Amino acid sequence: MGYDPAYDVYLPIFYVLLPDKQQDTYWHLLGNVIMQCDLQVDPRYVTCDFEMGLLNAVRQQYAGVSVAGYLFHWKQALRRKMIDLRIPQETVSHVMTAGVTDVLTVIPIGEITEKGISFVRSRVDESDHRGKWDTFWRYFERTDLNESFTTAHPNLMTFMAVIKEKSKNYVVMLDDIRHHRQRAQEHGNLVGVELPAEYHRFCGKQSHITARVK
Q1: Cα dihedral 208, 210, 213, 214 sign
Q2: Beta-carbon contacts of residue 198 (< 8 Å; ≥ 6 apart)
Q3: Alpha helices, DSSP H only, in the chain?
Q4: 173-189 pLDDT, tens digit each
Q5: Superkingdom of this entry's organism (predicted)?
Q6: How far is 189 from 68, CA to CA, in rounded Å?
């Protein structure tokens, strides 16, 4: 995506269906993006998923660039869902603090389901609202991990159908902004997210328990 100052929004420029999530694949993808833009790509910062292969490829292709994740809107969406489920406000506020849900943005994607979610749940008192939290985490896995596709490896027709629908939505959004039917979304400030030491200790304990069970 690229920033359009005329509408104060970010718009998709390339849609790419990749065969895997290897660092070399991302590296070649970003190299082709640079070539398609006639070598005129000089970003101030890059916003992307916190996936190690992608992060390394971005840093190699765009040396010195600041890499960021869009944490603000992500946490706002989670907060709204918690409130919809009538989870107590003080618990929601705790979950939104540093070192809790934002941990899920800086660990490998493969760790989110088995380790990340378990870690976050260990930091929250669910005793009186376990059913609501079960519902919330099902929602999280369905939306944040699966995103727009119903399968992990969509075929080409599914991929094209999703792109077509997303493109139509962007056209409608720009037309609405142009005619003052809606405003561009607020952009969050850049913030740093660090992996807390508690997460490493939690994973160490989990590995020890698993080893004893085996």
Answers
A1: negative
A2: 99, 119, 123
A3: 23-36, 52-61, 71-84, 89-95, 109-111, 117-122, 130-140, 156-178, 197-213
A4: 677 777 777 776 665 55
A5: Eukaryota
A6: 10
